[in-house]
Design brief:
The complex is a heterodimer of chains A (419) and B (77).
Chain A: E1 4-12, H1 19-27, E2 34-35, E3 48-49, H2 70-73, H3 78-94, H4 101-105, E4 107-112, H5 118-131, H6 140-144, H7 148-157, E5 163-164, H8 172-186, E6 191-198, H9 203-211, E7 242-250, H10 251-256, E8 263-272, H11 285-298, E9 307-309, H12 318-329, E10 337-339, H13 342-345, H14 352-366, E11 368-369, E12 392-393, E13 398-405, E14 409-416
Parallel strand pairs in A: 4-5, 4-6, 9-10, 9-13
Antiparallel strand pairs in A: 1-7, 1-8, 2-3, 6-7, 8-14, 11-12, 13-14
Helix pairs in contact in A: 3-7, 8-14, 11-12
Chain B: H1 3-16, H2 37-51, H3 57-60, H4 66-76
Classes of the chains: A alpha/beta (419), B mainly alpha (77).
Chain lengths: 419, 77
């Protein structure tokens, strides 16, 4: 069986633009939350979010000009801009910009988004209402379509392999990485650029999730304390935005070119809840099946897992996932560390699974589990170490990243040291 | 240069991200100024918006160069 390793990483997160810049702040327990500036939030209930911090590119700020020419940027929604920025970092990090046709034919792209160009759709609708359909830009559709990050990345680097995109709400990023790894295993490609991107912090996005009663609403006075997974006082998730992209590569291919290998994709599991459009099944059995499927794929046992990057959104569902993990881990529950980096990044929806897979990979690299911040008063007692408020330095050979999405779609990605 | 030409040039420079001196009378949007077919659609829309005119699709197809655009708009407005 062909093996798949990770050779490049790219991040645009609410904490910073850049992998090391984001990771340092994650280990430090910083929050990316603040008042909404992207639009006037006076009409929506939730007035805070985890926004990408724009700037001149120094000190981890995001400078759009570094990633896309202004005249091209005008034609795309921000989720594509974030995706291209993270992809550029990952491709550069992997050192994979082949000039020969055969290598390009063997390199594919699988980058998804949960919602895609939501803000573009809303704004264009308003424009059409006001000025009529003849004013709709020819770039509206290609600037809002979810698969257009994959398309743009393919065009930018000449990658002519499989060009695909995942749309599974908050599981998108995890499914993209898992599915891309399968394409390499199956022989459709030797290299895949994979991940997710999201930019849904706009009035209709916040209004929509407010209507679902999914967002935190009570922390306008202290947004950095709003995302608090497993804490008794949590009241919903905090919306985040950004992108996470990895370069996946067939093991022998990576070795042959002397690539830096971060970790191996050991296993991938998927399941469906068949229960409710927004709520997870009450006992978390869907999530548990997803985790078990990843273990089976990897030929590993629950006790082999050292670190779990939880879905943990800071909603009622946190304890459902925790219960499923406890059940699956059994006697080994006391030895695993599980944290929710959403306590710091907020919930990046379709990008969440990708940035969290990257944090899991870095946890393996650096032998440290990032903290769950704002966990001051745990909602339930658990034998699982939830890394409250401080990173945990420990042996991490195998890490599991969970993502569960609306519609009852679950994905689990297992990464670890190359065996 | 006429007022129309100035305004058309400003739109072309803005939308195509080209230097002002490249936008000459005979400069073709596609062959000389790096536009693709979608860019030209957007340019025509921007001309319509700026000058408050309607440019029918069959007329739009005849607007290939900066000079074509200035001529058409001068006659239409």
């Amino acid at each position: 069986m062909r093996r798949v390793v990770v050779t490049g990483l790219g991040l645009v997160t609410p904490l910073a633009c850049g992998v090391e810049e984001s990771w340092t702040r994650i280990l430090d327990g910083q929050s990316g939350a603040g008042p909404i500036t992207r639009f006037d939030p006076s009409r929506v209930t939730t007035k805070y979010a985890c926004e990408v911090k724009y700037g001149d590119g120094s000190d981890g700020t995001f400078n759009p000009d570094d990633w896309m020419e202004p005249k091209e940027r005008r034609k795309v929604d921000d989720f594509i801009l974030y995706g291209l920025a993270a992809a550029e970092q990952a491709v550069k990090d992997a050192g994979w910009t082949p000039e020969d046709e055969e290598s390009r034919l063997r390199t594919g792209v699988m980058i998804g988004s949960g919602i895609g160009g939501l803000n573009s759709i809303a704004e264009t609708t308003l424009l059409m209402h006001e000025k009529g359909p003849r004013r709709v830009s020819p770039f509206f559709i290609p600037g809002a379509l979810i698969n257009l990050i994959s398309g743009q990345v393919g065009i930018r680097y000449g990658f002519k392999g499989p060009n695909h995109a995942v749309v599974t709400a908050c599981s998108t990023g995890a499914h993209a990485i898992g599915d891309a790894a399968r394409l390499i295993k199956y022989g459709d490609a030797d290299v895949m650029v994979a991940g997710g991107a999201e930019a849904a912090i706009c009035e209709i996005g916040i209004a929509g999730f407010n209507a679902c009663k999914a967002l935190s609403t009570k922390r306008e006075d202290d947004p950095k304390a709003a995302s608090r997974p497993y804490d008794a006082d949590r009241d919903g998730f905090v919306m985040g935005e950004g992108a996470g992209i990895v370069v996946l590569e067939e093991y022998e291919h990576a070795k042959a070119r002397g690539a830096n290998i971060y970790a191996e994709v050991l296993g991938y599991g998927l399941s469906g809840d068949a229960y409710h459009i927004t709520a997870p099944s009450e006992d978390g059995e869907g999530g548990e099946r997803s985790m078990r499927a990843a273990l089976k794929d990897a030929g590993l046992e629950p006790k082999d897992i050292d670190y779990i990057n939880a879905h943990g959104t800071s909603t009622m569902a946190d304890v459902i996932e925790l219960g499923a993990v406890e059940r699956m881990m059994g006697d080994a529950a006391g030895k695993v560390t599980m944290s929710s980096t959403k306590s710091m990044t907020g919930h990046l929806l379709g990008a969440a699974g990708a940035i969290e897979a990257i944090f899991s990979i870095l946890a393996v690299r650096d032998q440290v589990a990032p903290p769950t911040i704002n966990l001051d008063n745990p909602a339930v007692e658990s034998p699982v170490d939830l890394a409250p408020n401080k990173k945990v330095e420990r042996e991490i050979n195998v890490a599991l990243s969970n993502s569960f999405g609306f519609g009852g779609t679950n994905a689990s990605v297992l990464v670890g040291k190359v065996r | 240069m006429s007022d129309v030409a100035d305004r058309v040039k400003k739109i072309v420079v803005e939308h195509l991200g080209v230097e002002e001196d490249k936008v000459t009378e005979t400069a073709s949007f596609i062959d000389d100024l790096g536009a693709d077919s979608l860019d030209t659609v957007e340019l025509v829309m921007a001309f319509e918006e700026e000058f408050g005119i309607e440019i029918p699709d069959d007329a739009a197809e005849t607007i290939q160069t900066f000079g074509d655009a200035v001529k058409f708009i001068s006659e239409a407005s």
